[in-house]
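Subject: complex prediction, re-run

Hi both,

The earlier run crashed halfway through, so I resubmitted it with identical inputs.
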Amino acid sequence: DSALVWFRRDLRLHDHAALYHALKAARRVWCVFVFDTEILDPLPRADRRVEFIRDALVELDATLRATTAQPGGGLIVLHGRAVDVLPALADTLHVQAVYANHDYEPAAKARDAQVLGRLADLGIMLHTSKDQVVFEADEVLTAAGGSYSVFTPYKTAWLRKLDGYYLRAYPTERYADALAPRPPELQRPVPMLAELGFAPTNLHELQMPPGAQGAEALLDDFLDRIDRYEDSRNFPALKGPSYLSVHLRFGTASVRHLARLAWDRARAGSRGAEVWLSELVWRDFYHQVLHHHPRVVTHSFKPEYDAIRWEHGKHADKLFAAWCEGRTGYPLVDAAMAQLNQTGYMHNRLRMVTASFLCKDLGVDWRRGERYFALQLNDYDLAANNGGWQWAASTGCDAQPYFRIFNPVSQSQKFDAEGKFIRRYLPQLAKLPDAAIHAPWLARPVELAAAGVTLGQDYPEPIVSHEDARQRTLQRYAGVKSVS
Ligand code: FAD
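This time it finished cleanly. Structure:
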């Protein structure tokens, strides 16, 4: 009996639920990854995530070659429509079953349902397991059996349910004997980016170590800092967070392993670890929101907010373009967008600030910002991104109340007081004094002159007045509230 393990967003060999179940059940196991043209075709031709995935596959392939007892081991990599090429491969290999881990995004669920049908027609089973989250959508429910739409009670219930059992690693290495050599015609190296139709990006210039080894290195580094996480996490110039999000996104890190480490540390009294564990709970929380309310992908969680009249037409396009390109005249917002555009990462505090700025200072529909982040973020995850945007736009479950509007200048003064982060991404403002860097239009002419900054030339004037925008936003939201 033989089996095929289909890797998707779980690009590691250790602590891998589907691989473990396949290795235990079958005597011969092959591993495959499909570069799915349905996902790749709409992407821009240079995409850091495609390169990140490719790097992870090269590592996965090397580890499989080294682990498979007979020569010819390694990863099978296909390029095509997954719904076509995956069942065809399973058929060619004459496996009895395909194993994969659950993917919760609506498009992935639809794809998996189609694959299940095609495999069934061939007499092949599809077994899927939980792997990507600690608790799936229906594992943490209210006493009445409903789903949670507020985070704090969800977190309380999540922590109450947590038990070492759920965080135990799947010991795949114990059963590695079942890994089978690939048939000769499938012993091909992982395709180059160009073969997939993609150009290289600046990924390798960024401090973003790839693959499971990269995740391990980041984790080692973070464990030295985790106790201070609560104090440092909000300051974008500091190395506060873990930077593990891209690894959680593509499964080069195991969420069980991370949660286990944090949980142990938290129980030993580390407040930083306790707060960090909560972030992993947010991750599960937004996954279950998406599962129970798939309409959030295109609609407000709170339906009355779908009636909001956002800015529209050319005016909105202009505002949106300035936001995307970091030309709003608000240094913290512009520096954050530069970080996103240059690296594919943005600090969490800045995701909140820039998202709030787009919706509440520029009055642009949150869905446009959500789509822009989706294209740019290395760690883009539909559930977390949608949840974060709806939180910032006050349209979501457990959202920030609409009348609490971030002030982009005071956020800057509070979280980047010395302007270190701003200077890193906006070198044209580097010479402004700390007090002036948060709102250059308020600087004295001598300060601007001494710093070599001419507003409107080296750096834009503010695109809107925050105070006026705030009033407009209050009216925009209040109007909706009164009709609903
Ligand atoms: P850490 O602070 O080290 O957090 C550890 C892990 O917890 C993260 O890697 C992530 O997996 C999870 N996490 C942390 N915060 C959240 C959160 N609020 N919601 C869900 N999971 C969380 N996160 C994504 O992974 N993908 C996204 O597409 C995404 N889009 C966002 C959009 C907006 C508007 C906002 C406000 C937040 C978004 N987040 C998203 C959440 C958060 O900003 C990132 O997870 C975090 O900045 C990643 O950096 P880190 O790994 O260093 O975080």
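The pocket of flavin-adenine dinucleotide is lined by residues 233, 241-245, 248-249, 279-280, 282-283, 286, 348, 351-352, 355, 373, 377, 379-381, 384-385, 387-389, 392 (CB under 6 Å).

- K.
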